[in-house]
Amino acid sequence: MKYFLHLLGFYFAPAVLVSFCSLFFGVHILSFFISAFILPLYYFSFRKKINHYTFQVILWMNMISYALLFLCLLISQGSLSNSVWSVWFIFSLPFFVPAFLAAFTGEPLVVIAILLYHTIELMICFFVVKPEYSKKKILIVLSCIVLSLCGDAYIFLNSPSQKYKGHDFEYMEGFSSTDLEPFFPYTKNNKLVTLKEPSSLIIENPSNMPILDGAEACYPVYAAIANAVYKDIDQLEKDYAEKNNTPLGKIVTFYNTAVGYERLFNKEVDMFFGAKPSPSQQELAKDMNVQLEYTPIGKEAFVFFVNKDNPIDNISSEDMKKIYHGDITNWKDVGGNNQKIIAFQRPERSGSQSMMLYFMGNVSLKEPLTYEMASGMGGIIKEVAEYHNENGALGYTFKYFLEGLNQEKDVKILSIDGVYPTIENIKSGDYPLSTHLYCVTLKDNQKPNVKKLLDYLVSEQGQYIIEKTGYCGL
């Protein structure tokens, strides 16, 4: 027993050392690369004490760790609140420091880091001990390690927490789901639409420039408008971004629909570009005693889309409402394959979710598909699942968001009630889910340049920018 405890102590010691080192280097997978330096020093220093039996303990402890992680991932399917994870964290006791910090900060890489540690440890022990294994036994051990690592990676990458988290862009304060950098006013060789002649409206003083915000899909529009009208806006925003170490602009801002409308109500911005606010946002405006003014500046289509291999090309408005209410759950009921419908929704208060609520009318939406993730305060929170282009998937958004920003690949847009959202059908209103693109302002905002910019948006030059960006003009 005494010898067995000695062996366990020998196994735990370097793990605890690496664990404490992570306090100084941060809870990140890079902190565990120090194990590549600590472990060789540790094992070579005590190599005379490492014999065949010591190696067996280290080998089996690591193999059990691999197996437990595989079982935890398999059973929980990415659900962080599943009690099975307690087994993994108990077994990973020597890593209590990074495990605790990871649980508190929501850092998901700690599991990968511990796997990295175990793999490095096994490789070093093989080199130091040089066990007299047959080639067949070594091949079996290595095969088990490789299969376990590959299995862990496959289950992890296909768990709901990874499949449904969206495109996961790190910048834009977490509000962006697609790459908007090509449309920043200060990005070199950006993709913003430019006029062929000087703008009929120029605002020179930064203090007189209306502050803009809007939906993600509208950012290329109002960024191009600012680029044309606001003098030296590229340099102004570049200086602000560099000084504050943020991609967000001071004048051409972006917080998306959910936060953007609140900023408008709080009078932090002058103009919001996007769809009309959701019922809950309208209630908030009423509670804050602000009156909204809607200026149509273009036309857009609200669209539903599926995997490109889905045989369905058209669906009725009535059937679509039944799908999202939960009455229809299989594609065969609307003329498709015998396949479950995975109907994705959008986050609450997003522009497309607001439009979806208008589309549903008095028909309630079923509970959206969600996934669990660790929050930054140590809890488990549920997020609305972002669209994942698997078989049977169904999603919705605005047409420009899907096509102009290349939001999803290998998908196709459905016709609704037999009408496809072509430019002609959107302009004429024949497409049943045609809608206006709005610039929303506060009625009591009497800044002269706000009125001038609203007039500019519906002018020939403003409409040129809107149409060339990818929207339909008025």
Q: Report the major sheet.
A: 7 strands, mixed
Gap from first CA to last CA: 83 Å
**What does the overall shape look like?**
globular
**Content of β-strand:** 5-15%
Describe the protein in words.
The model has no long low-confidence stretch (mean pLDDT 81). Helix 3 packs antiparallel against helix 4 (85-91), helix 3 packs antiparallel against helix 6 and helix 9 (219-229) runs antiparallel to helix 18 (460-469). The chain is an alpha/beta fold. A hairpin with a 5-residue loop joins strand 6 and strand 7. Strands 1, 2, 3, 5, 8, 9 and 11 form a seven-stranded mixed β-sheet that branches. A two-stranded parallel ribbon has the order 4-10. Helix content is 46%, strand content 12%. It has 18 helices and eleven strands.
Short synopsis of the structure:
This protein is α/β, with parallel strands linked by helices. The protein has helices at 2-25, 35-45, 52-76, 85-91, 96-105, 110-129, 135-157, 160-163, 219-229, 233-244, 256-265, 279-287, 317-325, 351-360, 399-404, 423-428, 448-457, 460-469, and strands spanning 212-214, 271-274, 292-307, 314-315, 342-343, 370-374, 380-384, 393-398, 411-413, 415-416, 434-442.
